[in-house]
Amino acid sequence: MPELSRCWRPAYPLDAVTVLSPLRRGRGDPCLRHDDGGRTWVTGNTSEGPGTLVFRVCGDGTVEARAWGDGAQVLLDGLPDLLGAADDDSGFVAHHDVVARARRRLPSLRLTSTGRVWDALVPAVLEQKVTRYEAHRSWRELCRWFGAPAPGPVPEGLRIPPTPAAILSISDWQWHRAGVDLRRRSTLVVAARVAHRLEEAVALRGERGRALLRAVPGVGVWTAAEVAQRAWGDADAVSFSDFHVPSIVGYALVGRALDDEGLAEVLAPYAPQRQRVVRYLQAMGYSRPRFAPRYPVRDYRAI
């Protein structure tokens, strides 16, 4: 298979693992992998077709990348944005000491931008109202059963995310086998039917882009924000109604848990870069205190 390549040198310190962490859906993610050789493998469905991208950061900061498949050139062209080059944090002011310390300690934290809505939408929908363990398991199984093998000389098990056509081909019993309930599968089926229109959200960006995503029944504020954070690096797309985010931000900034109203109030001074604050706190390892048993893991396959 023909191989394309490019070298690119960012004008900032690059920590690829931190930048790409929002894209990784668990340790066994079949579409994003960091190997022992310091290389990162990323697959995706592009406007030109599926493709595989692999890159490594050299000692001098240069990024050496190769790609295969019909979408190889698109992935290579998007490499800088994927690694945060399009992110603009100018004008950001830390209004809390915790955020200021995080900013000093994480100068390499930047917001990724894949330029692709569909590949971010599927796992986001799978994560609605379930534990991450459940969602990541369903994501792995859908990629394994309905995603194509990644093109190129790739590590074993690397897959392309399921295409809209593949999602529409899944029968009810196969959804059940993957542990996806009726509500989430219905959302994915509707989204698959208009997937080509949803990609326009990347060009619209901001609230207009998120509003386009929310036009799909079953895609609310939380899901639209999760997609926007990844597809175009939306620095203001906060995942309201998230199980963890209000507590993480609340305990880190004001010492108590918050609801969505309180979260919006605390983050208001940071607009239009509220999500950047959340990323700083998450990257620093802040988490909600655990006062009770973990949220139970359900297995829809047994129902």
From TrEMBL:
Keyword Iron-sulfur: no
Gene Ontology MF terms: alkylated DNA binding; DNA-3-methyladenine glycosylase activity; DNA-7-methylguanine glycosylase activity
Signal peptide: none
Alphabetical GO biological process terms: base-excision repair, AP site formation; DNA alkylation repair
Residues passing through the membrane, by range: none
Record keyword DNA repair present: yes
Residue runs in coiled coils: none
Keyword terms, alphabetized: DNA damage, DNA repair
Listed GO CC annotations: cytoplasm; protein-DNA complex
Protein's name in the database: 3-methyladenine DNA glycosylase/8-oxoguanine DNA glycosylase
Organism taxonomic ancestry: Bacteria, Bacillati, Actinomycetota, Actinomycetes, Pseudonocardiales
